[in-house]
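User: Please predict the structure of the protein below. I'd like the answer in structure-token form so I can feed it into my own downstream comparison script.

Assistant: Understood. Taking the following sequence of 227 residues as input:
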Amino acid sequence: MTLTILIPAFNEERVVKQVLAGVKKVKISGVKKEIVVIDDGSTDRTYQMAKNSKVIVLRHLLNRGLGGALGTGLEYAKKNKSEIVVTFDADGQHNPEDIKKVIRPIIKNQADFVIGSRLMKNSKMPLDRKIINMGANVFSYLLFGVWVTDTQSGLRALNKLAIAKINIKMNRMEVSSEFLKEAKKSHLRIKEIPIKAIYSKYSRAKGQQNSNALAVIIKLLMYRFAN
């Protein structure tokens, strides 16, 4: 079974080497793993450091945003006939061992699309982020009719059906809700698995900013009523 781990990265030279080393160490019996970094127009040494880590690196010459990077990664996975895709943030927020947790329901044929939820158990998510996430959960439910506890999680797993059916069109942070819209449209089985996020000053600064919430809402409204 082939597993493609997609890691979108923008100006992550401080942590990308460490993140890739952690992901490389993850061993999964019976699974052939490849790591793909999508360098989203970085202006620092992210591209060079990823190449030096001996992983596959796709490169945008201009910054397109998280959605653009994940869209490029999914197109790569489709062309290469990957059987499982995992999306994984490059800022050091995720524990690489949680990759095993999110792909387990896929391997057991219990789900087509799995979200690693930071809010299911004993969450240490900062209060402001909890509030923003809950708002995003409610808003995504009202727009697309899918309820999950952590719409904004960057750790997800897709099986072969989900890889084929999900088409990413949005370029920036609103992509997290677009995943749910696409999953619902294609009648995919959605499951959440509890994970623990690793918060640091760096990962907080690199993550979705609270000030972006209104722009994301406006884009999702436009997207919802245009489709």
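That's the full token string. The two ends are 35 Å apart (CA to CA).
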